[in-house]
Design goal:
alpha+beta
Length: 520
């Protein structure tokens, strides 16, 4: 029996890449031996003739009708973003960049749109402007990412230097801004830009280096392009073993380490100021507090500033934790030097006139004459200012000590004096006659007859009184020779510390006694 003839195996066609190049509307389908039409949104069977099936579908009436319908539909970009809309978007982008450039709060964008509409009522761009704080923040985020990419490309192609420093706040997380100095060919000069502000929880040399290294590796910036690294002079940054400089040197030993020029200038100026006869910082502090709590002194200084034709400015307060403020304070002091010298000269003259040598013991003494106006030079003015401040400072310190320790044994607390009780002592009154000095002999007190007044004589410890004569000006209270104001302040601080330590010890002893009583 003869075997039946075998049927020929039918070869099926598959989708080829050249079909996509010839007909862009056809794509590879998920089904085998099919092509997907993006216009008709259907799968076309091409297993029989392949390319012929594709051509037949594209030339069909159904495909042509759908293709013409899609072509007549306007694009979404032309529907929502016309030429006028693009101009408005450009205006919004420029204003957002203006806010970032001039460090203006983003909340100002809420008021910019209504203001532009009132300012430019004839402008279509102003009428369509609608960029508040939310949209402005989104635009700024996009602009910042674009700028970071441009800076990264410049650092990859050309040499650069980097600088950083930690924030001065007392939080656990500190901020480290990475500032880059690089040449920008589009501008034609070297620019200084902010690359990134990173957070650091571990403010050690290795921790800070890891932050910088991660940012450079993220942008694929090689350490070989880094020319110099700038930071402050702390051991964390410039340490040769565990500082940031040591870890950077391991990556590129040719990097030049630059310390903070401001710190170096401050140290040089501080050592140079030691050659002066006064302490600059103490003088600034004393002048500020001498004027701060008195509106009368401020008014007098303001009048003298107007008289000397200088700008009416306040005396700045020196902050010990911010050494950069010292330069501003010194400049302000030099600007106001002439009215200040006149002010303290007036203060010194007022103190001399306020305390004349007139008392019950010397009723014949007259008030001192007015002091002669003295011409002040810069050197004499400094000495007068320092002497006036030191004397006023001593008086306030002594007053504080007396208020803390209480009244002395000789000066009791003020109050109504009690009446003396009558004892067996008798007081004999003599007949009237010429007055004679009283003699205190024992418990009795004899009153002599009236007569020409003569000075009283006391048998006890006497105080010698000079005879009346021409009035002499009283000398102003000044510190003794060899007086050191800094040493006096230091001793006062030490005494305050000792008193606080004693009070702490007393409180601790009292607490221990209370505990023992409670346990008993």
């Amino acid at each position: 029996m003869a075997e039946p003839p075998q049927k020929k195996v039918r070869k099926t066609q598959r989708f080829l890449d050249r079909y996509r190049e010839r007909w862009p509307c056809l794509q590879m389908s998920r089904l085998p031996h099919h092509a997907f039409c993006t216009v008709c949104k259907t799968d076309v069977d091409i297993s029989h003739q392949g390319a012929t099936d594709c051509r037949r579908h594209v030339e069909g009436t159904k495909h042509k009708k759908l293709e013409s319908a899609i072509a007549s539909v306007p694009k979404i970009t032309t529907k929502f973003f016309g030429d006028q809309d693009l101009r408005t978007i450009r205006a919004e982008t420029l204003f957002s960049n203006f806010i970032a450039e001039h460090n203006v709060p983003v909340s100002i964008a809420d008021h910019a749109g209504p203001l532009f509409k009132k300012m430019f009522p004839d402008s279509q761009i102003a009428q369509q402007y609608g960029c508040a704080r939310t949209k402005t923040a989104a635009i700024l985020n996009t602009l910042s990412s674009n700028d970071e990419q441009v800076i990264s490309d410049l650092m990859c192609r050309s040499p650069f230097s980097i600088a950083t420093d930690g924030s001065t706040d007392m939080d656990d997380v500190k901020l480290y801004p990475l500032v880059v100095r690089v040449y920008d060919p589009s501008v034609g000069k070297i620019v200084v830009v902010l690359l990134k502000i990173v957070e650091c929880r571990e403010s050690t040399g290795e921790g800070i280096y890891n932050l910088i290294d991660q940012e450079l590796n993220k942008r694929k910036i090689p350490w070989g392009n880094c020319v110099s690294f700038s930071a402050d002079n702390a051991s964390v940054m410039q340490g040769l073993r565990k500082g940031v400089a040591a870890f950077i040197k391991s990556q590129n030993p040719h990097i030049y380490m630059v310390g903070c020029a401001c710190h170096l200038m401050h140290l040089a100026a501080e050592k140079a100021s030691r050659s002066l006869c006064i302490d600059i910082e103490d003088m600034l502090i004393l002048i500020y507090y001498y004027l701060d709590k008195s509106s009368k002194r401020k008014a007098l200084l303001r009048d003298l500033q107007i008289l000397c034709d200088t700008d009416v400015r306040k005396i700045l307060k020196l902050s010990s934790t911010r050494w950069l403020a010292l330069g501003k304070c010194v400049n302000r002091l030099l600007q106001q030097w002439e009215p200040l010298t006149l002010f303290f000269a007036e203060e010194a003259a007022g103190k001399k006139a306020a305390k004349p040598l007139t008392s019950s013991a010397h009723p014949s003494l007259k008030s001192p004459a007015a002091p002669k106006p003295s011409t002040l030079t810069p050197t004499s003015g400094k000495l007068a200012v320092s002497k006036t401040l030191s004397s006023s400072f001593l008086k306030t310190k002594v007053h504080q000590r007396k208020s803390k320790t209480g009244p002395s044994s000789t000066h009791q607390q003020t109050g109504p004096t009690p009446k003396r009780q009558q004892t067996g002592l008798t007081t004999k009154q003599l007949p009237a006659g010429p007055s004679t000095p009283r003699l205190q002999t024992g418990p009795t007190t004899k009153q002599l007859p009236a007569g020409p007044s003569t000075p009283r004589l006391q048998t006890g410890p006497t105080t010698k009184q000079l005879p009346a004569g021409p009035s002499t000006p009283q000398q102003s209270a000044q510190p003794p020779k060899g007086f050191d104001l800094n040493q006096f302040i230091f001793k006062q601080k030490e005494m305050g510390k000792k008193q606080r330590d004693l009070s702490k010890k007393k409180t601790e002893k009292e607490k221990k006694i209370e505990k023992t009583e409670v346990t008993k």
